[in-house]
């Protein structure tokens, strides 16, 4: 998180928290909701920041139980919690990004009913930031839905959290781009294919290594908002150091004391203190850093709405790996990449941008405008593009904050399609790429046709601050020529903004 005192990594490739901490900002008063498999609440370096109100869906109990909110199931959430809210300055273990923030934990992933999800995401309206280092199962390449209760819960929390200023929902982008060790040009999942990742109000976080390059597993997506730091296996590549779950015989967590780690690959080295591990990784490790940065920002400026925070984070993000071919300079002067989002989170820059900020308002003043078209337009079989147009006028939206695109097609294998959304100024954002789908979350399994596009939704972040009025073009190409290509039967654009 802070690069210059570490032996590995590139100086300046970090969250830029030091001057924020030195100015006395540590997340005090910011409440985090950790939606995960469970958190070891009485961990020595977490307990000082535990707030009452955690829910254990397995036992039905509220509050701090004797040991944790998930027993051996609390491995992942305990690591996530430490990255945000391990207490700093206590001469123990580690420090989270927001070392004096407080948190409540919900072990939804250990009993994942829709009702529990809604509870975990919305029951405590005082939650500033809801951290969600989870999504649908990675690595099959297929479109994965989320229940309507999910979208309702997020929409409700944006509108009703923090007295109408909104809870911030941070999500891991997903680890299904490939598997560890694969070339970075091997794409399976895209973050947008997972419906948990593309609500217009959420913040999807990609993972980069400590030299600013993409973590090979981190999913691309037009829906990405930010990046933060993560690692590999902790052996040949640096991984994240954080709090670790312990059991009655200290056998739990990613550092169970037997020289192995549970995820993603085994390693022969970890820390001697089994209450901490140095092998956590994935976009699950990146998202909590953004949650921590938001906790710092909201301590200093608690009146910012969820919309303010999202735009401040985009404006203050750091362009990393600046020669990467994915970077686009938009017509509104943002740098955007479908690998890195607007860039890596920068705490000190965010607080600086916020110091002169005029509020956008919350959900109640958010404008939406939709255009839809039921149609029957053939996708060419010769590799040329079908271009669908949407001429928008009278939207009343002069500054877009997010775009949602829904598409239906009778194409038998939409994995063959390449799709992009183009604004009036001809800047294009890639929203779907040619990829294989597998019969399970492993590329060694047989391939299959990807499931059909039935009002499949994609979220597009990069047209931030564009006017909605104008001519939008959706370009669709079948990258596997000669075979039947099918038709586009429906498309809908929804603009959110002010
Ligand atoms: Ca500590
Ligand atoms: Ca995924
Ligand atoms: Ca352990």
Automatic annotation (TrEMBL):
<dbReference type="InterPro" id="IPR000209">
    <property type="entry name" value="Peptidase_S8/S53_dom"/>
</dbReference>
<keyword id="KW-0378">Hydrolase</keyword>
<protein>
    <recommendedName>
        <fullName>P/Homo B domain-containing protein</fullName>
    </recommendedName>
</protein>
<dbReference type="InterPro" id="IPR023828">
    <property type="entry name" value="Peptidase_S8_Ser-AS"/>
</dbReference>
<keyword id="KW-0106">Calcium</keyword>
<dbReference type="InterPro" id="IPR034182">
    <property type="entry name" value="Kexin/furin"/>
</dbReference>
<dbReference type="GO" id="GO:0005737">
    <property type="term" value="C:cytoplasm"/>
</dbReference>
<dbReference type="GO" id="GO:0016485">
    <property type="term" value="P:protein processing"/>
</dbReference>
<keyword id="KW-0720">Serine protease</keyword>
<dbReference type="InterPro" id="IPR002884">
    <property type="entry name" value="P_dom"/>
</dbReference>
<comment type="similarity">
    <text>Belongs to the peptidase S8 family. Furin subfamily.</text>
</comment>
<dbReference type="GO" id="GO:0004252">
    <property type="term" value="F:serine-type endopeptidase activity"/>
</dbReference>
<dbReference type="InterPro" id="IPR036852">
    <property type="entry name" value="Peptidase_S8/S53_dom_sf"/>
</dbReference>
<feature type="active site" description="Charge relay system">
    <location>
        <position position="76"/>
    </location>
</feature>
<dbReference type="InterPro" id="IPR015500">
    <property type="entry name" value="Peptidase_S8_subtilisin-rel"/>
</dbReference>
<keyword id="KW-0732">Signal</keyword>
<feature type="active site" description="Charge relay system">
    <location>
        <position position="284"/>
    </location>
</feature>
<dbReference type="InterPro" id="IPR008979">
    <property type="entry name" value="Galactose-bd-like_sf"/>
</dbReference>
<dbReference type="GO" id="GO:0012505">
    <property type="term" value="C:endomembrane system"/>
</dbReference>
<dbReference type="Pfam" id="PF01483">
    <property type="entry name" value="P_proprotein"/>
</dbReference>
<keyword id="KW-0645">Protease</keyword>
<feature type="active site" description="Charge relay system">
    <location>
        <position position="36"/>
    </location>
</feature>
<dbReference type="InterPro" id="IPR022398">
    <property type="entry name" value="Peptidase_S8_His-AS"/>
</dbReference>
<dbReference type="GO" id="GO:0016020">
    <property type="term" value="C:membrane"/>
</dbReference>
<dbReference type="Pfam" id="PF00082">
    <property type="entry name" value="Peptidase_S8"/>
</dbReference>
<dbReference type="InterPro" id="IPR023827">
    <property type="entry name" value="Peptidase_S8_Asp-AS"/>
</dbReference>
<feature type="domain" description="P/Homo B">
    <location>
        <begin position="362"/>
        <end position="498"/>
    </location>
</feature>
């Amino acid at each position: 998180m802070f690069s210059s005192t570490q032996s590995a990594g590139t100086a300046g490739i970090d969250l830029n928290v030091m001057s924020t901490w030195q100015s006395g900002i540590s997340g005090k008063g910011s409440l985090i909701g950790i939606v995960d498999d469970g958190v070891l609440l009485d961990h020595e370096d977490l307990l000082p920041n535990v707030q009452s109100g955690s829910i254990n869906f397995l036992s039905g109990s509220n509050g701090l139980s004797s040991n944790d909110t998930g027993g051996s199931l609390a491995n992942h959430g305990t690591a996530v919690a430490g990255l945000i809210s391990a207490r700093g300055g206590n001469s123990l273990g580690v420090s989270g990004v927001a070392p004096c923030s407080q948190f409540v934990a919900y072990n939804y992933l250990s009993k994942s009913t829709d009702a529990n999800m809604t509870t975990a995401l919305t029951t405590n309206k005082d939650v500033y930031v809801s951290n969600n280092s989870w999504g649908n199962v990675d690595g099959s390449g297929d479109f994965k839905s989320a229940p309507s209760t999910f979208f309702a819960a997020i929409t409700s929390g944006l509108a009703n959290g923090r007295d109408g200023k909104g809870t911030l929902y941070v999500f891991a982008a997903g680890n299904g781009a490939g598997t560890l060790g694969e070339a970075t040009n091997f794409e399976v999942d895209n973050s947008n294919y997972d419906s948990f990742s593309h609500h217009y109000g959420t913040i999807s976080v990609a993972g980069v290594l400590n030299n600013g390059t993409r973590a090979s597993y981190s999913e691309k997506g037009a829906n990405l908002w930010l990046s933060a730091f993560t690692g590999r296996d902790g052996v040949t590549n640096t991984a994240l150091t954080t709090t670790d779950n312990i059991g009655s015989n200290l056998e739990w967590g990613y550092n169970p004391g037997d020289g192995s780690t549970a995820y993603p690959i085994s390693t022969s080295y970890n820390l001697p203190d089994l209450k901490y591990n140095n092998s956590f990784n994935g976009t699950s490790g990146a998202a909590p850093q953004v949650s921590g940065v938001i906790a710092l920002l909201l301590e200093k400026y608690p009146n910012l709405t969820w919309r303010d925070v999202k735009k401040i984070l985009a404006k203050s993000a750091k362009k990393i790996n600046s020669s990467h071919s994915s970077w686009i300079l938009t017509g509104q002067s943002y740098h955007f990449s479908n690998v890195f989002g607007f860039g890596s989170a920068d705490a000190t820059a965010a607080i600086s941008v916020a110091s002169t900020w005029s509020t956008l308002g919350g959900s109640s003043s958010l404008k939406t405008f939709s255009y839809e078209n039921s149609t029957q337009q053939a996708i060419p079989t010769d590799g040329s593009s079908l271009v669908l147009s949407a001429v928008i006028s009278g939207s009343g939206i002069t500054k877009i904050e997010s775009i949602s695109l829904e598409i239906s097609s009778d194409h038998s294998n939409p994995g063959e399609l390449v799709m992009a959304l183009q604004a009036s100024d001809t800047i294009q954002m890639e929203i779907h790429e040619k990829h294989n789908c597998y019969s399970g979350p492993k590329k060694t399994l047989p391939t299959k046709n990807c499931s059909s596009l039935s009002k499949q939704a994609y979220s597009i972040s990069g047209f931030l601050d564009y006017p909605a009025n104008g001519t939008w073009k959706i370009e669709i190409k079948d990258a596997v020529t000669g075979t039947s290509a099918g038709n586009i039967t429906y498309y809908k654009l929804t603009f959110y903004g002010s």
